[in-house]
Amino acid sequence: MPIPDYQALMLPVLKIAAAGTTRVPEAADKIASALGLTEAEREELLPSGKQRVLHNRIHWAKFYMGKAGLIDSPTRGKFVASEAGLALIGSNPATLNVERLKAYPSFLEFYVKSTDLTGASEQPAAQAAKKF
After folding, report:
1. Beta partners for residue 80, in sequence order
2. Residue 66 to residue 81: CA distance in whole angstroms
3. Which end of the chain is more exposed for a tag (fewer CB within 10 A), N or C?
4. pLDDT tens per residue, range 69-120
């Protein structure tokens, strides 16, 4: 199974963060197990060879959700769901992606600024969060 993109990982990451303070390696282990990733897939590195693909995508999911106010970082390297994140999880969403994050003013402001600077546009990805 290919490693899901960062948008497909948003909901699983938020659900893990809603259970309590965690770190990316712990979240990666839980997600990899739930998705049935092989050891090779778990260890797959980015082209730079400096970071695992799964860890990188979890970091991006966490970063974007942080911009929306769904994730807090109480200390370096740790993260947890914020009150807004817990409220979102409580509504039992089927998916979570950039389009959904645009409903949060802080994220929309960040997104507009970042796309204005880069000229990029994002399309929502298929979600792999159903296993969580």
Report:
1. 72
2. 9
3. N
4. 999 999 999 999 999 999 999 999 999 999 999 999 999 999 999 887 665 5
